[in-house]
Amino acid sequence: MYLFALVCALTCHEATAKDFIVLQSTTSTKNSGLYDHLIPLAEATLDVEIRVVAVGTGQALRNAQNCDADVLIVHAKQAEEAFVAAGFGIKRHDLMYNDFVLIGPNGDPASVMETQNLSAAFGSIAKKSAKFASRGDDSGTHKKERALWAASVHDPLPESGTWYLETGSSMGATLNIAVELGAYTLSDRATWLTFQNKRNHRIVYQNDPLLFNQYGVIAVSPDHCPKTKTKAADRFITWLLGSDGQSAIAAHTLDGQALFTPNAQP
Q: Is residue 15 classed exposed, middle or buried when 0-12, 13-18 and 19+ CB atoms within 10 A define those classes?
């Protein structure tokens, strides 16, 4: 009896424990509640546990490069393609999209709502030294924000710590700071819609093609990370890109509004 118990202690757990994969992803997907909806459906179908690590896109890519991931869902296409080209990922797939929105106080002190384009909107914030909360964390949202500043021909970095406030935080935390300080900020729409502390803040600029926000999914390369759980990762990605996963993404709504639009190519 003792011998059986000893053998079982060494082998029974291994035989019954569910396999797991690590998904490095963005704070925007987590903050929006997408994974609370999506992961249980995937786990039930695939019989694999999916452990989500939610950080900015830049950090997620670095974590995966350090072999601390099996799968990535992030939103900075150029950086994603560079990750794959460097041999850290197998292949990048379009997964879903939403868009970014510029958030500001109801009073709109920088008169953003009177501007005609995004460059003018960001330029007006800079010219009036209106407070702007930047994530400052190399996330996908931060990368987009930096590109929009560059397009406006204004560099806010010399003003860091004055009107330009770098939070180094997640999207939800940055929104809280913006609301508390009466600042503008850039957010993905899904996080803003599900954000509970809007108070006197609103969308002040939206629906511009430059605010398009594409998400991609990538399996980490076993050539670079030999311990990567490639088979389980591939099953998860196949599910995400297939009809079940795409339907599950489309079904994640708030007050009848889709938070992400699936756009995987068959």
A: exposed
